[in-house]
Amino acid sequence: MSKKTTIYDLAKRLGISPATVSRSLNDHPSISGKTKKKVLEAAKETGYRINKFASNLSLQKSNTIGVIVPRLNSDFMSTVLSGIETIANNAGYNLVISQSLEQEEKEKFNTKTLFESGVDALLVSLANETMNYDHFSIFTDRKIPLLFFDRVIDLPNCPTIIIDNEAAGYQATEHLIQQGCKHIIHVSSGLNRSVYKLRYAGYRKALKENENNFRERVIQVDNFSPPEAKKVIDFIKTSVHPIDGIFVSSDSLAVYIIKELRSNGYQVPNDIKVVGFNNDPVAQVITPELSTIEYPGYKMGKLAGQSILSHLSGSINIETADQIILKHRLIIRESSQK
Amino acid sequence: MSKKTTIYDLAKRLGISPATVSRSLNDHPSISGKTKKKVLEAAKETGYRINKFASNLSLQKSNTIGVIVPRLNSDFMSTVLSGIETIANNAGYNLVISQSLEQEEKEKFNTKTLFESGVDALLVSLANETMNYDHFSIFTDRKIPLLFFDRVIDLPNCPTIIIDNEAAGYQATEHLIQQGCKHIIHVSSGLNRSVYKLRYAGYRKALKENENNFRERVIQVDNFSPPEAKKVIDFIKTSVHPIDGIFVSSDSLAVYIIKELRSNGYQVPNDIKVVGFNNDPVAQVITPELSTIEYPGYKMGKLAGQSILSHLSGSINIETADQIILKHRLIIRESSQK
DNA sequence: ATGAAAGCGCTAACAT
DNA sequence: ATGTTAGCGCTTTCAT
């Protein structure tokens, strides 16, 4: 029961060759139905299990896709992963998932590890820290499909899946302006990542177009955890101009900010209006409900999976670097209404 | 640059044997320092990368740990996964993660797939649907380490990591009773899973101990999504006894229920008090803040990782089935206060 | 300290 | 339709 049976065992048992066994197991067309049946039965009886190590070595492929994300435990990211997993799983691929924890070093290490472990493709959402992209060359050099999603970088022949972050940032800010906000600040993190840089650009663009005495002001936070919200409040309290609008690059932080604001005596949206980003589930359950940009994470994950699978199956020309831009949407709730 | 170099290439290049190259690369003690240095240099120059397929086949191990969870996109689960990943990554292990989506069939399939892909160990949190556990025998038969966390089942020689769910359910309910609740209902899902069954048992025990005319009543929901909250409200509205306390097996659902309650004119906690489960971040940002049971997900993940690694390294007797019970804690916030 | 060679188990090109 | 056989690249026992 515990001794593992190989195709050689099956071959001997049935008096046929290992090749025939292998072919039968793989449903090769040129094997007779009766032989296949015999083999399958023997396999079941003996508890035969394919040895992927050997199979992978022979085929030089692993049916495995690597994924590197900044962190697993964010609502958005785990939703994207869920989408990727669903697609991969249905196609018979396994997912090897690792976290960079926003560190360039860890991202490098994970890239190397995943390469060596022989993943057939790699999906990456970049760490905030990452400034250099040479570590991905082991993939690009060997033409192993590499795709970036959400936190992307433009590399030759690497598809990207994003939303139009600049437009989203613009809309969020424009909305606040239309609600009468005069002094709108932007709260973000990792401004060297294009996602955040572009939202910031959209914010600035909106301010500029509605020329008056608006002052552009971005508060950079280290991450989207509760203590960072305090920094924002401190700024607001000491600002010479009365802040009346906040566009935050993350719902989770926006929510903490609102909480902090309220416990500091500010009324949301009366005194200060807030727009977040992502449309995390939390946006709908807090008081006041949070206006935000809907960012379709599950769909992004599914598309990332599908895109990489079609590259793997060769149904898309791998030389064609594509860029998929998903639709986003401003959702107006209570937190930003006049 | 694109042609892959093997240990044979290095051996030829340096005029030594492949065995020596292999040993050098693995820092084998009986290789001279100079030879090692030569090899490492040549490896670097040629861009040599180990081929794990071959290595795995030879060693019959993959440095990979499989994980099956009900779903990736829950705050609790992604936090646990984050803990597992951190430990595994530091120990040089990769994580293959898959979702059962609460379906027994998918769990079976994933178990088989992960087995065949040669994971060195398997970590599982069971699907709600799963009633039969034979699919895990491929692991237990071959003494491949198998560990259950959160949603566990008692299998021979399989460690489990849990909290004392019965005590937690008891405390939550007892607390509501002490706050003056007379008609407390319990909302849960997947009552055939011990996690939920035990919380329910704790709930019943608390009611029984505080003998009076309390009626035990459990509302089973299909999952913890918003629409399910409506079912709960419907029950409350039509109940002959005025419901004044709710113990919910999940913060995410508790939060939706509170929202529904409020929009139906109920005051929380004045009319109805609510206690959730897990201490998701959302518990602290909603209004009123949610009382809940703190369930240390990250710690659970780290422990699961550590436990399985020590089994793998043989530093723990694999025959010793251990059960780790993590501390939980009732956190009293506004939603349940008199 | 190093080398020779036999696996590890599967696949596929090339027979038959 | 089936068999033969040469890899796939690394590890490791057994020499030397």
From TrEMBL, chains A, B:
Offer one Pfam family short name for this entry. Answer: Peripla_BP_3
Does this UniProt record's set of keywords contain Transferase? no
- Gene Ontology molecular function, alphabetical: DNA binding
What the entry lists under CDD domains is as follows: HTH_LacI (cd01392), PBP1_LacI_sugar_binding-like (cd06267)
In the UniProt record, does the keyword Transcription regulation occur?
A: yes
**Source species:** Euzebyella saccharophila
User: Where does the HTH lacI-type domain start and stop, copy by copy?
Assistant: 5-59
Q: What is this protein called?
A: LacI family DNA-binding transcriptional regulator
What superkingdom heads the lineage?
Bacteria
Q: Fetch the InterPro entries from UniProt.
A: HTH_LacI (IPR000843), LacI/GalR-like_sensor (IPR046335), Lambda_DNA-bd_dom_sf (IPR010982), Peripla_BP_I (IPR028082)
